[in-house]
Amino acid sequence: MDSKYPVIQVLSRQNYEHQHIVALPGAIPLPPLAPSSLRVQSYILSLTTNNFTYARVGSFIGSWWEVHPLPPSIPAEFADSNKYGRISAWGYGVVTESTLSEDSTVKVGSLVYGYLPIGTLPVDLEGGLSTELPGQFLETSSRRKILMPIYNRYLTFPPSIPTEQEKQSLGHDALWQVLFETGYLFNRFIFAFTPTDRVHPDQELGPVPEKELTVEQTHIGPDTTVVIFAGSGKTALGFAHELRHGRPEGCRPGKIVAVGSQASSRFVEGTGLYDVTMKYDADEGEDFTAQLGVDPDAHLILCDFGARGGAQDRWAGKLKALCKSMSIFRIGGEVVATNPEETLQAFMKSSQSEGIQINASDMRVHALRVLGEKRYFEEFLDAWQKCKSVGVKGLNLRWGKGMEDLAGGWDKLASGEIGPDQGLVFDLGIPRLSPL
Q1: Which of 14, 18, 253, 436 is most deeply packed, by most CB within 10 A?
Q2: pTM, whole model, 2 decimals?
Q3: Per-residue confidence at 248, pLDDT binned at 50, 70, 90?
């Protein structure tokens, strides 16, 4: 494919497994950049099953299909936005143009971390720098106000050409920094070990006393068993890491249990983050309770990060009678290729299930209110650096180069060929920059 033209990924909105890599010769020259804006070209992107979630439920929550719409230069065969669309990814881009003030800390060549389009067609971000954290850019355009705030905040870094070691670090950031953050927020603010930090995920519109999480629901201590469904996922791994390493003495759970598939069990056991590893169908065995090892007087916490086949609901039904107290939380859903109608039905069914739904963006909004922007990001990024420095045993980056490799990675991920021990990251190339 001729790389002198921008290239983007285009998906079928009926089935995200059907993708097209489309060149855009009509996109050049780019239009003038609006005031108070950055023009950013994607550089290092990751792919996880999270991208499939954006595609599956993007029409119902998050408006993820609308973040980066089909460009005017799209070929006519893909121009129907009811049939085709674009989904984004987390990673790094490079600032190719800027209309921010001359004294801005963000210059042409700066790196930008955040939610970026899949492709080499630059995206224009409109807004400004945070007053409390001038190294962070807040997207405030009217088109993106419907998005949850977490998708409109970008971290910026001075211009540089990363060394190979630095590039590996950027790859881990792209792959699971934001997924780790979900686990970090869950551990730090839902299961708060500091009472004044405790928040409820449904309070973004103000206090909701009748929905307030009780101390009993969110208590974690030596008498607590935390059961994590889909424990091989990056978000679950981040949560398990923080349960072990991000809590003070006396506030750590007595036992952390991972529940997952046969295919992921060896990887999960090798991480060393879990005390017990069980299969989804373990509840059908006669030694179920003995294998789980739950004390009837212990507090049991079930956390669903995307269990298969409704496993968490089955387990909850069987465990209720065995435990004095049990709390249920839902963080992710099962990733299955379905059409929009089937997805909506599954989404409505899930919303009626027992348990508290957790949302990363809402948790971050509350955390920023509790701690302030500066303290929150200092503490979070410190926790992330500590996690990244030790890594997760067995988790390795699998690099690709260019959009064709990314397309191949998308297909392999969709067909289940990528194991939990592999993290897909792609180098789309550093764009050519005009002189300042």
Answers
A1: 253
A2: 0.92
A3: very high
